[in-house]
Amino acid sequence: MLNRILSNDMPRSKLLAVLLVAVFLGLALAPFLFPGVKALSVAAKVLVFVVLVASFDLLLGYTGIVSFAHTMFFGIGAYGIAIATTRMGPTWSALLAGLLGALAVSLLLSLVIGLFSLRVRAIFFAMITLAVAAAFQTLASQLSELTGGEDGLSFKVPQWLSPSFEFADEPFLGVSLDGRLLCYYLLFVVAVVLLLALLRIVNSPFGRVLQAIRENEFRAEAIGYRVVVYRTTSSVLSAMFACCAGAMLALWLRYNGPDTSLSFEIMMDVLLIVVIGGMGTVYGAAIGAVLFLVAQSYLQDLLRLAQEATSAIPLLSALLSPDRWLLWLGVLFVLSVYYFPTGVVGRLRASAAR
């Protein structure tokens, strides 16, 4: 049964299986295991980035396409929800209309980019997508009447998902049973469903053709596969999943702006997570997102404790200053690439195979 749910893509490593179960249970029980606003926000962000990174890995890891326009579709999903609820009010029909509208725009744009750009070679396609993403971010900043400009859009969500809505008077295990909790579990269910759908795609005959194109595009074309069609389809599917991830982010934050979903820093974070988790593995998105976002969110707190513990050693204390968290995050990334060149998932699977 589990084998069918995972589309015959088992972890193939006992340690990886333990890590995946721990991640699943940790996210499923996050509101109860890690109480607090910050912890819940980090867990929700992990759910969003798991979908976003896995969708990007469909392009990079499985098809070998380097695209810098991925966050554009992420932003389209977020703006779809924000604009629809701002114009139509905090209703479920507004959320559905916003999501469907965003998916339609993402489908159209990804199809156009795919048809016009995927015939060129890798570096030229990457530069084209970078230019398109930059142009879209500028457009979103300037269309203030529609997108709110640089200030973005704040909006309300349906009452059941609002933090002010409580569906029980008494807390359960110390956690308030309110709309925020319902919103988190909505994101959790959506993330699990989308991740299983991606697993199904990459382990289908279509997914195996994508991997063949990644390994040798000319050979795949020589044996009869229409490479442009498969690459374009991969680009469209990836954009649709990224759009859903953007809608999840907007629903959780109840706000969206250019820096929230269209920033180039998000694209860099996605690239780092793919490398850390392991390219060409959907499981790598989950492992990498947890490791990176937890380190990004709590590294300053750990450095603050380390600085206090080493206050008697001025030089070491200064080096462990929380203001230098980006330096230490970079060191951790370099070490992870050095010791896990194929990512955490790739390394664990290789060790299990030996």
Structure description:
The protein has 354 residues and is mainly α. The chain has one domain (22-353): Orthogonal Bundle (ABC transporter involved in vitamin B12 uptake, BtuC), CATH 1.10.3470. Helices cover 75% and strands 1% of the residues. It is built from 18 helices and two strands. A two-stranded antiparallel ribbon has the order 1-2. The model has no long low-confidence stretch (mean pLDDT 87).
Named at the architecture level, the CATH assignment is Orthogonal Bundle
Number of helices: 18
The SSE order reads HHHHHHHHEHHHHEHHHHHH
Low-confidence spans: pLDDT under 50, at least 5 residues? none
Q: Structural class, from helix and strand content? A: mainly alpha
Average pLDDT confidence is 87
Strand order of the largest sheet: 1-2
* Spatial extent as radius of gyration: 21 Å
Q: What's this, in brief?
A:
By secondary structure, the chain is mostly helical.
Fold topology:
Layout (H helix, E strand, L loop, with lengths): L1 H4 L8 H15 L1 H4 L3 H27 L6 H19 L3 H26 L4 H21 L1 H4 L5 E2 L24 H24 L2 H11 L1 H6 L4 H27 L1 E2 L1 H4 L2 H14 L4 H28 L4 H6 L5 H15 L3 H11 L1
Antiparallel strand pairs: 1-2
Helix pairs in contact: 4-9, 4-12, 4-14, 4-15, 5-6, 5-12, 6-12, 9-12, 10-12, 14-15, 14-18, 15-17, 15-18
